[in-house]
Design brief:
heterodimer; A: mainly alpha; MetI-like fold; flat; B: 269 residues; mainly alpha; 2 domains; globular
Chain lengths: 297, 269
């Protein structure tokens, strides 16, 4: 084949490839890039739910600071993110260590831990609403019989601590298995010879875990931590359904606030400004995270 | 076997069984609670779920099935073609587009849904099941494109070359030779697209306004959030069971194949 024919053939092939990628390009452009630009544009306008928008920059941003709820929502979302990430990571890692080796019964345990992830998160939130209710839920009865609590406890709305704890229990139940699966695939990618070498060197189990497992697991750990932090910063369903943001707005998360600005106060401009601020924080977080990952990996 | 091994074996089984009970009991309880009635057991709670004023209506189920079918079909179509392009072809802008698709993961959708709501209004797809499905497909793309690109890359070159020798176009090669080879990837992508679209709550909450467009998830949550007096918890648990059963069945039957797809595709990067 002549070079010219070969070149025109590879050009034809490039065109074919681009054609196959076209649907992806259209989807990404219309439903990702366009709204990304639009949310920035909207944040510079007074943008009512109905009616024409008018430019009012930078009012939406300066007003974020005046919004009473913003301070408490930011503080609550950060606290929730720290508590949730630490607990979820410890539980998921523990489960993965428990079921990492093949032995009788391990398959059953893995499936048990994974099964909650098949239940949609909104459904899981409703499940826990009933489970923790005093009307039909067994939890209060059980704890009363064990003598741990006395009288009536309203888990999801009684106090900010109990509302937060209810949410933490729900998220642990729903997401521990999924994160266990990712950690498990990381654990199993470590060659057995590495452990063998550590054993020959006389390392104890704890030393092997700290000096061998953890360093080799760093990319996987970074991945699950990123997903946990991002997921917690964007928490909505669990508070919307389980605690309704209460009591007294004490469990109102940032995304709940965005929803409230947009569809209850009908102020899309203000909702967009809060979205952009949250987005900026998340992008900085992700970039830092990627940098750390690349330097160490 | 020495005694410390026996102790650790007992420790493993006692801890494992206790944890399994902890993880399984909420599921078992919701099934039990949904069947429990003041007079014993029966389907009364399900009866209220499907007949009360703000319960699930037939149209909600039709809506959910429509959205799930559109999302699964659309995700499979776009990610198969895209995965084929990214895994098997060289063209200008390929890597940029691939990275841009993955960047969707970095921009959580909660922050752009308000803009999507306005945008869908401009193209006449506000409060529409098609509009919701298109948005759900976009959210599925980073995972699905990544998965399918890796699946296509893993197909041996010789397989595709033999098709070219036979004079197949790239499209016939895709249909006859490549698709059977990437089936585990397709199953995983389809399963996740279904689980997400069937259960998704936040996107339909923002993008659908009229109650006759509601999906079942929205309808069931509405029973909780729209109730001003007391909540009908038992009917709510019936709703949870109704929502969860198709997912649990699919999940149980396909666990093996999707875990394989997960480990073979996702970690190759």
């Amino acid at each position: 084949m002549s070079p010219k024919a070969s070149r025109s053939r590879s050009r034809a092939r490039a065109l074919t490839g681009a054609a196959y990628a076209a649907p992806t390009a259209v989807m990404v452009a219309v439903f990702f890039l366009a709204p990304l630009l639009l949310v920035g544009w909207m944040s510079l306008h007074k943008w009512p739910l109905l009616g024409a928008p008018t430019m009012n920059a930078p009012d939406n941003y300066t007003r974020i600071a005046d919004n009473d709820l913003v301070g408490s929502a930011v503080w609550f979302t950060l606290r929730y993110t720290v508590v949730m990430t630490v607990l979820l990571f410890v539980v998921a890692f523990g489960l993965a260590l428990l079921v990492q080796h093949r032995r009788p019964g391990v398959g059953f345990l893995r499936t048990s831990f994974l099964l909650p992830m098949a239940v949609g998160f909104a459904s899981a939130s409703l499940l826990f609403l009933g489970l923790l209710s005093d009307e039909i839920g067994p939890v209060s009865d059980l704890l009363r019989k064990l003598g741990i609590i006395e009288g009536y406890v309203s888990w999801t709305s009684g106090s900010s601590t109990s509302a937060l704890s209810s949410t933490v229990a729900l998220v642990l139940w729903r997401f521990a298995g999924f994160n266990m699966l990712i950690i498990l695939t990381g654990l199993q990618a470590i060659p057995l010879e590495v452990y063998e070498a550590a054993r020959i060197d006389g390392a104890t189990r704890w030393q092997t875990f700290r000096r061998v497992t953890i360093p080799l697991m760093r990319p996987t750990i970074a991945l699950v931590l990123t997903m946990m932090v991002t997921g917690s910063l964007l928490a909505f369903d669990q508070f919307w359904i389980l605690t309704r943001g209460g009591p007294d707005n004490s469990t109102t998360s940032l995304v709940m606030l965005i929803y409230r600005e947009a569809f209850i106060r009908l102020d899309l401009g203000s909702a967009s400004a809060i979205s952009v601020a949250l987005l900026a924080v998340l992008i900085v977080f992700n970039v830092v995270q990627l940098g750390v990952l690349r330097r160490r990996g | 076997m020495n005694s410390s091994n026996a102790v650790s074996r007992w420790g493993f089984y006692v801890t494992g069984i206790a944890l399994a009970i902890l993880f399984l009991s909420p599921l078992l309880w919701s099934g039990w609670a949904s069947l429990r009635t003041p007079s014993g057991f029966g389907l009364e709670n399900y009866d209220r779920l499907f007949t009360s004023d703000n319960g699930i209506r037939l149209e909600h189920i039709v809506n959910s099935v429509t959205v799930s079918a559109l999302t699964v079909g659309g995700t499979l179509l776009v990610s198969t073609l895209g995965g084929y392009a990214f895994g098997r072809f060289q063209f200008p802008g390929r890597d940029a587009l691939f990275l841009l698709t993955l960047a969707i993961l970095m921009v959580p959708y909660a922050t752009i849904l308000i803009a999507l709501y306005v945008l869908l209004g401009w193209i006449g797809l506000q409060d529409s099941l098609v509009g919701l499905s298109l948005v759900l497909i976009m959210f599925q793309l980073p995972f699905s494109i990544f998965m399918m690109r890796n699946s296509f890359e893993a197909v041996p070159r010789e397989l595709e070359e033999s098709a070219q020798v036979d004079g197949c176009t790239t499209f016939t090669a895709l249909l006859r030779i490549m698709l059977p080879a990437v089936k585990p990837g397709l199953v995983t992508v389809g399963l996740f697209a279904f689980l997400t679209s069937w259960s998704e709550f936040f996107a339909p909450l923002i993008l659908l306004n009229s109650t006759d467009k509601f999906t079942t998830t929205l309808a069931v949550v509405n029973m909780r959030t729209a109730s001003h007096g007391s909540i009908d918890y038992a009917a709510l648990e019936a709703g949870v069971v109704f929502m969860a059963v198709p997912c649990l069945l699919l999940f149980a039957f396909m666990q093996r194949s999707y875990v394989r797809g997960f480990t073979s595709g996702a970690l190759k990067g």
